[in-house]
Amino acid sequence: MKLDLKVKIAGVELANPLMTASGCCGYGEELADIFPLSKLGALVSKSITLNPRLGHPPPRTAETTSGMLNAIGLANVGIDKFVTDKIPFLKKQKTKIIVNVAGSKLEEYVEVCSRLNDIECVDMIELNISCPNVDEGGMEFGADPIMTEKSLKAVKKVFNRPVIAKLSPNVTSIVQIAKAAEQGGADAFSVINTLLGMVVDAETWHTKITNNKGGLSGPAIKPVALQMVHAVYSNSSLPIIGIGGIRSTSDVIEFLLCGATAVQIGTGLFIDPMLIVKIEKELKQYMKRKKCNSIYDLIGKVRKY
Amino acid sequence: MIKPTCEDTFLLKKRNLKNDYFSFTFKPYVPVKKCKPGHFLQLQLPNSDVYFRRPFSIASVDSNGSIEIIFKIFGEGTVLLANLAKGDKVNLLGPLGVPFKFPKKNEQTIIIAGGVGFPPLMYLAVEMIAKGHDPKSIHFFYGGRTTDDIIEKTRLNKLGVNFYPVTEDGSFGVKGLVTKPVEEFIKSSNSNMRIFSCGPTGMLKAADAIGLKYNIPGQLSLEAPMPCGFGICLGCVKEKTDGTHARVCCDGPVFEIGEIII
Ligand SMILES: Cc1cc2nc3c(=O)[nH]c(=O)nc-3n(C[C@H](O)[C@H](O)[C@H](O)COP(=O)(O)O)c2cc1C
Ligand code: FES
Fold first, then answer.
1. pTM here?
2. Per-residue pLDDT tens digits for A166-208
3. A59 vs B48, B53, B225: nearest CB
4. Into how many domains does chain B fold?
5. Do residue B145 and residue B219 come from a single domain?
6. Nearest to B69 by CA among B20, B24, B121, B11
7. For atom 14 of ligand 1, which residue has the closest CA?
8. A133 part of a folded domain
9. Cα-to-centroid distance, A61 and ligand 1 (Å)
């Protein structure tokens, strides 16, 4: 049998399990200057909201030990401009397109998703019910099982392709939220969004970003993400996209072993824009060495004590 | 926009210019021909606990395929960088950002440099002269706290530009802040002028204000923490005077006077 990196998420076939993470590749234009986007299993857009958003005032990122804190605050062009200015570019790319959708009210989510339903090149929606950086909505949706189920149900009604629920780690039980999303009709999970955090300067006594708190990402959060992927995998049969701190091929393999069918890479792209291209090559070498023909030989195969 | 590339290169030459100031030359660097004054590089540090790359303005390029940066030790990243040894491998992402727009040949160029804002402006002066600008049309105001902050004097002098060193303590050149001699120069001149500045926030603010006050066009090269350096994270934004945001890394780092709230 021929070695093959293909995976399927809710019936959508991806050339490989490697995606960009939302908010870490804009709308794809800048990365396309560096490598052909056909190298990606899928591109996940920045969170799109009904109205354009400027986001929080700067400074809105801070470096941390093995990671970073951000409170960008869902800065994005809004659905109208996204459709007119960004979709024409995305349509031309030879990769799957996943649009991440956020909002502060349920009606906003529904409105944006129904607009996206008419755009053929949008293969899936990723529902951001886990953003820690807006005062209302975002994480509030994803922290409450009833709201989670309700928002998925509403969105599924207006969007006729797969919907991925992006889950927050900032909850007591991620499994409970995952089950609620599944109940609402989610087709897959993205696990995890950023962890709430804070960064303070001991000299000036000041917090380092204007929003004071923000979302932690990067290698620092990988162990948390792996555990959560595995917990969701053990309690649901829906496919999982693993996210959190990936910066090497072995990181990707760890996520697959814990139960992820695909992965997203965010902060890692800031440090190495060629990371996904590199991992794609190394992943094939690894599979040859381990005598695996398919990604499915790795998914969920973690050996436990 | 130039398409940036990720290139492995080696530290060819390491010079300690003065106290905490270093000049590093890397070779081979293939994209030298694409580099322009104002462009910067994102340099990957050897220790992955310091997570982000670090941005450095290009100080000079050599057509033989080498590239120079100049930096001052300030914080974790530059300490790690200063510890690199000759021959060490480094990954450079670049060239990045929007470069300076060259002035017209009949304009007097006012350069206002401070601290590590000096390298891109020296590069600008070098390239202007290479393109046939009269060195005497370039007025290089260079400010620092003490004489220790004024680096590469000989190099500047060799260019033949008008060099106006200014130090706060008077240990070299005129005593005080650069803004005073700059304003005096402007008042005494009736040619068309253009301002270029890069340096500490206070200096940029002053250069911006002078440009607006005397109605002299020009450009400022700004700094910001840069998680990515090529436009994908929206982490480096500054507020514009029109109420929107601009990404320092790819809408800048070079902006027009009056464009950004500094
Ligand atoms: C600067 C930045 C902006 C982000 N913006 C979004 C966003 O708009 N929507 C979203 O769902 N997640 C967003 N995220 C979260 C990432 O998609 C990802 O879940 C998280 O960063 C963990 O992955 P990583 O460690 O590989 O970065 C953002 C992360 C960063 C660092
Ligand atoms: S540093 Fe990431 S957008 Fe500018």
1. 0.94
2. 999 999 999 999 999 999 999 999 999 999 999 999 999 999 9
3. B225
4. 2
5. yes
6. B24
7. A23
8. yes
9. 12
